[in-house]
Amino acid sequence: MSDIPLHSLGRTGNTRAGYAPLNDAQDNSTDMHTGVLRAAATRSATVNLKGKGKQRERYIDADDFDEEATLLGNGERALEDVEEGNAGGQSKRLPALSRRSSTLSRTRTPKEKSRTIPFRPGEKLQSKFPPNVVRNQKYNIFTFFPIVIYEQFKFFFNLYFLLVALSQFVPALKIGFIVTYVAPLAFVLCVTMGKEAYDDYKRNLRDREANSQKYLILVPSSDSGPHTRSVPSSSLKVGDLVLLEKNQRVPADMVLLRTSDASGTCFIRTDQLDGETDWKLRVAVPAAQKLHDDEELLDLDAEVYADAPIKDIHTFIGTFAINSPRTRSVDDVPMVQVPTVEPLSAENVLWSNTVLAAGSAVGFIVYTGSETRAVMNTSHPETKVGLLDLEINRLAKILCAVTFALSLVLVALNGFRGLWYIYVLRFLILFSSIIPISLRVNLDMGKTVYAQQIMNDSEIPNTIVRTSTLPEELGRIEYLLSDKTGTLTQNEMEMRKLHMGTMSYGYDSMDEVVHQLASAFGADQAHARSSSLATGAQLAMRGRRDMSSRVRDVVLSLALCHNVTPVTNDDGSLTYQASSPDEVAIVKWTESVGLTLVYRDRTRMELQTPTGARLTYDILDIFPFTSESKRMGIVVRDTHSGEVLFMQKGADVVMARIVQRNDWLEEETGNMAREGLRTLVVARKRLTSQQYAAFKTAHHAASIRLDGRSEAMTFVVAEHLEHDLELLGLTGVEDKLQDDVKGTLELLRNGGIKIWMLTGDKIETARCIAISTKLVARNQYIHEVAKLKTSDQVRDELEFLQSKLDCCLVIDGESLQLCLNLYKNEFIEISTKLSAVVACRCSPTQKADVARLIRHHTKKRVCCIGDGGNDVSMIQAADVGVGIVGKEGKQASLAADFSVTQFSYLTKLLMWHGRNSYRRSAKLAQFVIHRGLIISIMQAVFSAIFYFAPIALYQGWLLVGYATIYTMAPVFSLVLDRDVNEDLALIYPELYKELTKGRALSYKTFFQWLMISVYQGAAIMIMSLLLFETEFLNIVSISFTALVINELIMVALEITTWHIYMVISEVLTLFFYVISIAFLPEYFDLDFVVSTRFAWKVAVIVAVSALPLYIIKVIRSRVAPAASSKLL
């Protein structure tokens, strides 16, 4: 069986030069050899070894080093010996090389983390690497209190209340019960700390569960008993050989040595790592796969070199080296030439957190714990804070200034007598309710209610709120940045067109392809031979046969050139597994026209022809698709004829220079792109056995290089294969639009939201999707900007756009980068005024940069929506990130603040839930501030009349009850208010536009509420003093009762649409207040309270405070009605 390495095109990775073999002097056992890595498999590799000063990391002790230094031989000579030995095909073991490398190891830099690990490494070496422990906890027992306290008191609100509460422990400043000041703050802190502690405890449980999962490791055994031992995940170390079973999660990054599949391949699921749902193929190290059983790995004198750990999950550079033959007896002859060095790439590695999808496998651990790719790619995004929270924090600072001013004014009116500074502080404490601590509690509870309403909405099922602090932000979005594939489109591909230069087959003429293919494979040949035809007709038939063979060539190439694996399900049906939906669509199409992929493993592929015959091909090499190379290639050999074919398919931009000259490719790719189709160019090349042998030799030499391996391999492929390919055809695959995308985009645009589409696709395709989704209005001018090279060109384009702001801009990634580099501010200023912008060929970082720039420049709210791993950075950079659970997996959905299953759900999310959340929170915040202000104004009036004495008007339970039981429920019921019903909000998106101006909570509305509070507080207090009897107690009872009833009436005036809970909360609160009077004799004289004098006085006071506001509200609704009321 031939072993086929999977190579990559144009992929760059971290490369290192020079080996430092590992000498584990501290392990003296006879079966532990000093590991020497034979880098010098080719002369070029040896030159690299000599020429570089930067050395591989070795882990040795100082004692070991001193011992070896005395034995040092001539290192340079040893290196030459390696060259000569390998050139002559000999395999000599050279201790001098290993010793020289020991001296070099002394000069390694601390940052150098590459490693060479022998099989069965010693414990000293293993202890140098991080433990394989999963730790997602935020805190430990020492850091919990300091961090949580800091997080809470960095908010102005909480810091202010902490100072007020602490002041009560100073006797001179003590006013009323200490508990009235300390309890609310303690409650808020306890709730927060409890929530944090609980969340961290749950994280700790998950960590403990992950760390205690059992895995089998291979261990040497003296008797004939089992060679495996079960250990918890946290005890695994670098160099352990782990046996994995089906559906087991991979515990650390490991090199795949053996699989239960004879071909040495296995499938893994990577959904937890990169969000992709497709299975990925992984390949075992050929030399290890050839062994008879897993136990033989324990006798192997081999070592694995692995590069320093990096984030990139698509790159791995390493080698697998067998140093001496594995012999069981004296007579055994080594089966392989030693030393052998095999290159390792990402295809040979199982990253931690992936899952083995089928079979069993043995892996050799190379990275553990914090050095695994999964941990390195786990970023903790910054906590997002809503604009409303920032605005309220600003208002709190204004209220603090008001409190201080009020205190100073009262002390000044008293003429700064006595210890006036103490009086200022006492007044500050008396007025502390101006900044209500309950505001944070109310708003946080409100956010929870909004999140529940969103998640329980039956019209947008499976919507998840992951960041519950941001629902109000959904009501203020002005820019929407959207991905294209999978977001606006379904990522469901269907082959629609095949163009072959002189012939084109559309979706409705595919039966012609079926017929041509059948005749090419001989189904119609017998009929053709038996007919006696005239000369002209015979010529026509020959022309038809030429066309048939061309159709056969292109369909055969499409059926062979891919990375698709057919998987037979339990019910006998066949499904295709691949990492790209485009490839699956093309293979399904070849099946529909008669050429079916029936079997595939790493070395062989079988196709079934229309006649039922089987075609078998050996797979010699595969060059997978990468975003850099934009193409994939395959070398196959027909087992019947022995013919070697190189086939390649890819994007037109890269294929145009690889195929032979032609006059139709560029024009036809443009035509297909205008129809909204994704294009792939298919080409092939016949290779002689000599050409292939020359390529193979050069490619192997490049593949085991240490320095610039990827570039060298790419160069070899380009030099030997990628030129003068025969152009076979051009395919057009359609990506279907998501449901109701057109209506959604139109509605959002009418709601004043400017929409940008950022995609990695090419200009033509993006342009057609923009037209078909109605992102561009009918007859709107589309201005294309592409391939800009100079600053003059950029300036000209910007000047044109400045004069035509009603157009849609389509720009490619290269030009976008140039614009941002040269004229960043001008470009953003002009483009943010355009109604629509389409940016093509965008990298993930470009998407995120655009989001940040718009936020920074416009200071408006930006929402980003996407469905793939490439959209995560953009989603995290936005004010609000929305992820779609799509074909590309859940990665975007998990990183987002809100997760939806369809793009069209965005309408309901923004226009209804977002709008309501913002309106309700704005009203709730202002009402809670009003509730605090009014009682402080009453306190100020009371103090002013009673000789400016800083004495509390309401003490103890009245103050506690006022902020909680007497007003909490009615005020909080405002979170259920709505001004229009759902249908109207979605029919008239202009209502949303009105809200984005931020007028619901502004300095204007804040000062209106400030004036209302001053008027009502003064009115209630002055009227109470005018009407009060001789008893001071009566002032308290009259004014407090009037205050509570006034607040209930104010809530009723604020409500636009009554809800059953609002009525219940108003009635119950009044009932609780009346009942509580009986239990608070120290504040209420019961005889006076039940008298008619009390009733009419309270009624008069409430009428004076509330009636004018009701009259003003009625007049305003007639003179300047709200936009929403015009629709009712």
UniProtKB/TrEMBL annotation:
SUPFAM superfamilies: Calcium ATPase, transduction domain A (SSF81653), Calcium ATPase, transmembrane domain M (SSF81665), HAD-like (SSF56784), Metal cation-transporting ATPase, ATP-binding domain N (SSF81660)
GO MF, one annotated term: ATPase-coupled intramembrane lipid transporter activity
Cited InterPro entries: ATPase_P-typ_cyto_dom_N, ATPase_P-typ_P_site, ATPase_P-typ_TM_dom_sf, ATPase_P-typ_transduc_dom_A_sf, ATPase_P-type_domA, HAD-like_sf, HAD_sf, P-type_ATPase_IV
Regions crossing the membrane: 141-163, 175-194, 395-413, 419-439, 928-948, 954-976, 1006-1026, 1032-1053, 1060-1079, 1094-1112
Main location as per UniProt: membrane
Binding site for ATP: D483, K484, T485, E583, F625, K649, R678, T759, G760, D761, R841, K847, N870, D871
Topology versus the membrane: Multi-pass membrane protein
GO biological process, one term: phospholipid translocation
Keywords linked to the UniProt accession: ATP-binding, Lipid transport, Magnesium, Membrane, Metal-binding, Nucleotide-binding, Translocase, Transmembrane, Transmembrane helix, Transport
Family indicated by similarity: Belongs to the cation transport ATPase (P-type) (TC 3.A.3) family. Type IV subfamily.
Name assigned to this protein: Phospholipid-transporting ATPase
Source organism of this protein record: Rhizopogon vinicolor AM-OR11-026
